[in-house]
Amino acid sequence: MSSTANKLEYTPEVAAVTAPIRERVKDVIPDVEWAIHAPLIARINELKQERNATLVVHNYQTPEIFHGVADYTGDSLGMARYGADTDADVILVCGVRFMAETAKILSPDKTVLLPDMDAGCSLAASITGADVRRLRKQYPGVPVVAYVNSYADVRAEVDICCTSANAVEVVESLNTDRVIFVPDGYLGQYVASKTDVEIINWEGACEVHERFTGDELRGYRKDFPGIEVIAHPECPPDVLAEADFVGSTSGMIRYVGEHRPEKVVMITECSMSDNVAVEYPDVNFIRPCNLCPHMKRISLPKILRSLQTLSPQVELDPELGLRAKQSLDRMLEIGRSAESR
Questions:
Q1: What is the pLDDT of residue 326?
Q2: How far is Cα of residue 181 from the mean position of the Cα atoms in its chain?
Q3: CB-hemisphere CA count at 13 Å for 97?
């Protein structure tokens, strides 16, 4: 915690200005923790205005960040697109490094901040641009699809990107019999189960999602009769086979909102359950406790320090950024074409 953060106090004025936020998160943040968070939240929200900054926050961030200081909450692509569409001079990314790179790719002329540059990703780190070039030599002429959870050097080498929500659509849009899919092996297996296209998989994995097991889900059903299980497609196949619903983070949130299950377990990073529970207090969320250590590097004190110093800044080689943007643009064009039909 910075020295400035240490000096912040939970005064009556801070309590008053943060009262609406406190009311929203009262069931997920204890009073003793709120007294620590509230002064930081108040100062961060002030500093956002002074810096003309927007804070984009991933679904896996902790509730005090997600509900306390966010201008936008959602998945990594939504975060970047929101930042690009605002008139903010500064985009502060509350997520991991590949997400900050996406923001910089879509907003090359804006200042993009990541409060902790060590906030990495086991999945993104599983492959490099050089690996993609080797795959192209091994499978000449076969198009390469990259899940957006990858670094810019990888996205610069592939034909098109995808999200977990549109991966099947993107693969089938290429009108080919075979596709190389990187870097998530489990998501690639899920896509293969939904299409006749042959998927050549790179075997990367998210260290959070790969820890779940089918036995674990059966245990939830035994301990909590009637529970609904919803899982992210980055999970292993035995997990997806046990789930009542499989979908992206936005799809999982939408499922809860539309179905309002009495009891639910979200098989993904556990902070997401805390964040969604705020919106649906009538739903009993059974929390899995798989945390992303990289997401948890982002904290309110680090966010405050980043806004104060306008650092650390995410920088990309302009040529690399343009090449990486092309694969994103191709994906977005598919979405625009679908909307026009």
A1: 97
A2: 19
A3: 21
d(Cα 103, Cα 77) in Å, to the nearest integer?
8
CATH superfamily of 209-285: NadA-like (3.40.50.10800)
Domain extents in the chain: 3-120+295-309, 124-205+317-340, 209-285
Decide: 183 and 147 in contact? Cβ < 8 Å. Answer: yes
- The two tokens of residue 287 are 């929390």
∠200-233-122 over CA atoms, to 5°? 75
Element (H, E) at 215: helix 214-223
Q: How far apart are CA 289 and CA 269, in angstroms?
A: 8
| pLDDT tier, 336 (very low <50, low <70, confident <90, very high otherwise) | low
Task: Using the structure block, give the residue that is written with the tokens 């709120």.
Answer: 34
Could you tell me which CATH number the domain at 124-205+317-340 has? 3.40.50.10800
pTM above 0.90, yes or no: yes
Element (H, E) at 16: helix 12-17
Strand pairing report for 178-182 and 228-231: unpaired
Per-residue pLDDT reduced to its tens digit, 186-230: 999 999 999 999 999 999 999 999 999 999 999 999 999 999 999
What letter represents residue 226's amino acid?
G
Distances (CA, A) of 167 to 199, 235, 239, 312: 12, 15, 19, 32
How confident is the model over 31-54, as pLDDT tens digits? 999 999 999 999 999 999 999 999
Inter-residue contact 115 to 306 (CB < 8 Å): yes
The 10s digit of each residue's pLDDT in 232-267 is 999 999 999 999 999 999 999 999 999 999 999 999
Q: Which CATH class is domain 3-120+295-309?
A: alpha beta
Residue-level length of the chain: 341
How far is the CA of 322 from the CAs of 103, 127, 176, 317, in angstroms? 13, 20, 26, 9
Give the residues across from 93 on adjacent strands.
56
